[in-house]
Design a protein that fits this description.
This protein is mostly helical and 218 residues long. 70% of the residues lie in helices and 4% in strands. A hairpin with a 3-residue loop joins strand 1 and strand 2. It is globular.
Amino acid sequence: MISRALLRDNAYRSIRDAIVDGTLQPGERLNDAELAQWLGVSRTPVREALTRLEEAGLVLTKPGRYTMVSPLDVQAARAAQTVTAAMHELAVREAVPRLSAAEITAMRAANTRFAAALEADDVDAAIASDDEFHGVAVTAAGNPALCTVLEQFTPVLRRLERLRFASVSGRGSVALHDRIIDLCEAGDAESAATAARDNWLSLDPGADFGLPDEALGT
């Protein structure tokens, strides 16, 4: 029998991914019974997943009135961006002294796949490769608290990343990744950490959403 925790986590990931990839659109009303039918689960794990998604900033709920996908919100994206950038800065700073040659090679390979995905306009592959690239340092850092914070705030930025990687501006991330790799390989933890932070801060919520702040729920 599948455990309740697994059902809850699966429901969370499925709804989260549907919000991030645009299957569920910003402002779309969410009905727990319909979501339960779609996912093939009971309403309980769906309700628990929606509560978790609200905490992550992807869902808005007004009890007794509505539950909806959060609008694209520049202010919320910038807040998540600041925290996420700081966590990746910390991850790289802690990881650099521990990185092996194999892990540096893995970062370069992930960035090569990332560049190829951008050239092919394959946003899903670009997202996956970008996750692999940053995941090397996050894993090497071995900091569970850091991972918990990233799990909460990264989904808010994921919608922004999808817009960024679907545009020409996303190509600039390849060079930023190369700089991070070179600094990691040189053992310069502070400079590599700063480069990792700057990479995440290079996302521009206002420009990448393509709408003025007031149109995005700020």
